[in-house]
Design brief:
Length: 484
């Protein structure tokens, strides 16, 4: 049985408290994970603090950039190891993880290394009464020890999305990966040692949220800033913890994203894009689409096309190259998604396809599988229209006017993302500008330039990361004024 320890100050360490890591494929135990207690979290934070005051804190930007490039190169050198670990933890198809999770996980280090290397700050000449003047310029310093709390849906990608800029800016990190997906965070510890990263710069503590590693980390007074991706309820708890000491937070939280499909869209592209946004990664994507609004003239045709696409998805294990959908992450999450499937039926939904558990062969029958599901016919007040399900499902509703669909799409407590499908560029700009979201795609979905701002509106988050916007969180920008 594989044992997954904590990674603290460059070493893998354990105590006598362990929990099981189960496979989403068949619910079998695939590893024992060491749960970090207060002592381990404290040791990790102290190691991170010591690294700030050691060689890492004195390292030139050029040398730091070189190390981050080495990290990215080593991830790519061990691509198959990371791929195997990610697929074992999540159950997702290898084709998906090979295309997105691992390449993006490595790229995050290079992208932010380049940002830090090239981004300028402000400079002003200031007149003074004595005629000699002054100069003012901006200077960025690391914010300090950053607590990183990661989700389970894209474990490596979303973790390095935060660790990359944090390290590029000269901070040190203590990571609490999801208890469901600890393997790639720990594998990255091996990479850090291999490339010569100073001890204490990168630390990993395993565990849960309340009364475990998550609470110990976010409540630790030695943590200077906290960055989190996950559900809104957890984000609210982290905000409360960060309030003690007035520590900054960057939160990317829940979403109930809407797609708006106008009758003049490129129909095939809109269907393909909505298929991906609703069902990719078994619907476990914060940016995924769970509400689809289709202009009435093409509504029936669109529902039929999406039904055909959903019924053409093949569920299977990661090694099955013909499979394009895996299981949900856990039995607990499976029960949550199935409870929403039951609510939709009870509230009067027309079940276009799916709505239950698929028949899987052999041991896979014990896994966390659900059917890709499409509903129609529900009012805007229905549970699966208002609340985030985080599964492979969507509700499709017709609309008649632009004003109507904007009001309905924005009538939600979340505001993370939207996808707008139309050939009318004026309408595209007009609708995108009025959507209450952090990112609006037009005729695409999940098309990301890592230099652009990323984050959510309303209850979907606080703050923006990406490109220079990450520097606003991971550094303290001070003004230096010199009297001449």
């Amino acid at each position: 049985m594989k044992q997954l320890k904590n990674f603290i100050n460059g070493e893998f360490v354990s105590n006598d408290k362990w929990f099981e890591k189960r496979s989403p494929l068949d619910n079998s135990v695939i590893a024992q994970v060491c749960e970090a207690g207060e002592a381990e979290v404290d040791a990790a934070v102290k190691a991170a603090r010591a690294a700030l005051n050691g060689p890492w804190g004195q390292m030139a930007v050029a040398d730091r950039v070189e190390l981050l490039y080495a990290v990215a190169n080593e991830i790519n050198a061990r691509f198959e190891d990371f791929l195997a670990a990610e697929c074992a933890d999540t159950g997702k198809p290898r084709s998906l993880a090979r295309h997105i999770d691992i390449p993006r996980g490595a790229a995050n280090f290079k992208v932010f290394a380049d940002v830090v290397k090239n981004v300028p700050t402000e400079f002003f000449e200031t007149a003074t009464p004595d005629g000699k003047g002054a100069i003012n310029y901006g200077y960025r310093s690391p914010v300090g020890v950053v607590g990183v709390v990661c989700p389970w849906n894209l474990p490596l990608l979303l973790m390095t999305w935060k660790v990359g800029p944090a390290l590029a800016c000269g901070n040190t990190v203590v990571i609490k990966p999801s208890e469901e997906t600890p393997q790639t965070a720990l594998l990255l510890g091996e990479v850090m040692n291999k490339v010569g990263m100073p001890k204490g710069v990168y630390n990993v503590v395993n565990g849960f949220g309340p009364d475990s590693a998550g609470a110990f980390l976010t409540g630790h007074p030695g943590v200077n800033a906290i960055t989190f991706t996950g559900e809104t309820r957890t984000g609210e708890v982290i905000m409360k913890a960060a309030a003690k000491g007035a520590r900054p937070v960057s939160l990317e939280m829940g979403g109930k994203n809407a797609a708006i499909v106008f009758a003049d869209c490129d129909f095939d592209a809109a269907v393909e894009g909505t298929m991906r946004s609703a069902f990719a990664n078994c619907g476990q994507v914060c940016l995924g689409t769970e509400r689809v609004y289709v202009e009435r003239p093409i509504f029936e045709k669109f529902v039929a096309a999406l039904k055909k696409g959903a019924e053409g998805l093949k569920l299977g294990v990661p090694d099955d190259e013909t499979a394009n959908m895996g299981p949900l992450i856990s039995k607990e999450h499976q029960q949550k998604v199935l409870s929403y499937y039951a609510k939709a039926k009870a509230e009067g939904a027309t079940i276009v396809t799916g709505g239950g558990v698929p028949d899987m062969p052999g041991e896979l029958a014990h896994g966390c599988w659900v059917q890709p599901t499409i509903w129609t016919g529900l009012p805007e007040t229905a549970s699966v229209v208002k609340e985030e399900v985080f599964g492979p499902c969507c509700h499709i509703a017709p609309f008649d006017t632009e004003e109507e669909v904007l009001a309905r799409a924005n009538d939600n407590e979340y505001g993370l993302a939207t996808a707008i499908w139309t050939q009318n560029i004026s309408r595209a700009h007009r609708v995108a500008a009025k959507m209450e979201v952090g990112i609006a795609w037009v005729n695409s979905w999940f098309l990301r330039d890592l230099r652009t701002p990323f984050g959510g509106a309303k209850q979907s988050g606080i703050g923006r990361e990406g490109g220079v916007h990450s520097l606003e969180f991971y550094t303290e920008l001070k003004n230096i004024c010199i009297k001449l």
